């Protein structure tokens, strides 16, 4: 079977693309190496522009009924101690708040909405693209331990910085090539934290030279 579009990676980018394209009548195959719902360690903050996108995709009400924590401001502090606080923008077409949504829930809602709109979802670890006559015409990957091929007229690589497709096409940098500008995220959830209600704080620390 040849799909109109194959999307590698079912995170917010890949799922959003699958929803938008399925709504337009394209036959979409959405692939991810994990089984949903699955968690991710980064990206719990969804700002006003993300909420506007949820409107466009027709999924806003599914998020709204979950009653997620609102975020009305962001505080950013630099390694030298400077701190900046900014409120969510007041602009036409945008809400003046965002949401803090665990990725395990956010991604599952988007994936389910993609499937509800006609996209096909498969648990599939992409290994490399299939290239014929200079064009990417599909992907190879592992499914249930077997190496299989999927063919599509267009392939979207939405599988992040370590994209198997990006590496094969020479579009992904090795960690050693951008180590000076690399950030590592850590996430944990707390109850009863003081002075944190209604906003997000992002703190940047100086690089530990031992990590170079």
Describe the structure.
22% of the residues lie in helices and 32% in strands. It is an alpha/beta fold and 212 residues long. It has a domain at 2-44 and 102-172: FAD/NAD(P)-binding domain, CATH 3.50.50.60. Strand 5 (73-77) and strand 6 form a beta hairpin. Helix 1 (12-23) runs parallel beside helix 4 (103-116). The protein is globular, with a radius of gyration of 19 Å.
Low-confidence spans: pLDDT under 50, at least 5 residues? none
Would you tell me which CATH topology of the domain at 2-44 and 102-172 applies?
Answer: FAD/NAD(P)-binding domain
For the largest beta-sheet, the strand count, sense and barrel status come to: 6 strands, mixed
- How do the strands of the widest beta sheet line up side by side? 8-2-1-11-10-9
| Structural class determined from secondary elements | alpha/beta
Number of strands: 12
The coarse overall form would be globular
Oligomer: single chain
Percent range of helical residues = 10-25%
- Output the number of helix runs: 5
What topology emerges from the helices and strands here?
Layout lengths: L1 E7 L3 H12 L4 E5 L12 E2 L1 H10 L2 H5 L4 E3 L1 E5 L5 E5 L10 E3 L2 H14 L3 E4 L1 E8 L2 E9 L2 E12 L6 H5 L30 E5 L9
Parallel strand pairs: 1-2, 1-11, 2-8, 5-12
Antiparallel strand pairs: 3-7, 4-7, 5-6, 9-10, 10-11
Helix pairs in contact: 1-4
């Amino acid at each position: 079977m040849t799909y109109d579009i194959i999307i590698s990676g079912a995170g917010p980018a890949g799922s959003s693309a699958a929803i938008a394209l399925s709504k337009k009548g394209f036959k979409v195959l959405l692939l991810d190496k994990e089984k949903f719902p699955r968690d991710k360690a980064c990206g719990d903050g969804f700002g006003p522009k993300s909420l506007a996108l949820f409107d466009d995709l027709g999924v806003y009400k599914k998020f709204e009924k979950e009653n997620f924590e609102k975020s009305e401001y962001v505080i950013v502090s630099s390694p030298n101690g400077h701190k900046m606080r900014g409120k969510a923008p007041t602009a036409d077409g945008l809400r003046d708040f965002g949401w803090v949504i665990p990725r395990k829930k956010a991604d599952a809602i988007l994936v389910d909405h993609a499937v509800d709109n006609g996209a096909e979802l498969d648990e599939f670890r992409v290994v490399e693209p299939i290239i014929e006559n200079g064009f990417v015409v599909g992907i190879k990957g592992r499914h249930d331990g077997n190496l299989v091929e999927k063919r599509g007229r267009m392939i979207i690589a939405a599988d992040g910085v370590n994209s198997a497709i990006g590496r094969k096409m020479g579009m992904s940098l090795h960690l050693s090539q951008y180590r000076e500008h690399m950030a590592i995220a850590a996430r944990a959830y707390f109850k009863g934290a003081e002075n944190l209600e209604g906003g997000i704080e992002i703190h940047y620390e100086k690089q530990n030279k031992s990590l170079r």
